[in-house]
């Protein structure tokens, strides 16, 4: 997805040149090597400098927590659905400075978005916010238009599993007016449970707020009550309450905003399955709650006109009103005070779970 809610897709069923590092966020793929770069040399399988990447890769990409580089063409043959690309090609090179991951910015380590159970093949799919807020600098060539920028807001997440949820909605914003350092990520999803429970799904959700100054407010199904009311397109209402906080997100966009994107599905592979816009209007309100459970004065009341909004899966014939209901025994298990990262710290890399 690109400027003005544009879209480009380069599809390839060949995964042999895809690579990913086991214990840090780094991945990439080469669709086509640059002229003169093959000569018996294998495609790269580790991050390269910008110059080295473009010298070796005619079509492909690489991404880590601090760089993103790529060049691609519109090539949708083999992907489900009609052609959707709005430009013939795109290329980019960015350097990224992470500001907030998923957890307090002053903490010794970050948190698993779905809790410690993320290291097990329990949920379908798994989801991790890698960078709730960051700053990106570099250039982006979108068709015939070149953009150069410095300190632009950045966000990154990771999904893994067989396919995206059967239904979901998502709101992300780190560009609130007059509130540098404020970020919110919210989601509601109908996900599968794959550990011995085929065909069983559950509705889960969360609201995560990184406040200016580094404090992190995490409202998840095992510590909060979450509910949402989301239209097929154009309106998002998400609320969470626990003993310490209450959060409310209200977001809207114009009916004509957004574009249909392909996403991984278990039934049809990469297929048109969601709709996104970067031109959402978002209001975030956050209150502290007293010991008596009463709502106090607003801790935060912020707005933005550049929120990222999404709906996916479905079908979305009508609005979706639901409450998060995480099933047992997972709801109890995820609350166990296990530090999987700490427990695995002394293990050889080959014995560590991927991602740690």
From TrEMBL:
Transmembrane segments: none annotated. GO terms for molecular function: tocopherol cyclase activity. Signal peptide: none annotated. It comes from the Eukaryota. PANTHER family: PTHR35309, TOCOPHEROL CYCLASE. This is Tocopherol cyclase. It comes from Gonium pectorale (Green alga). The lineage of its organism: Eukaryota, Viridiplantae, Chlorophyta, core chlorophytes, Chlorophyceae.
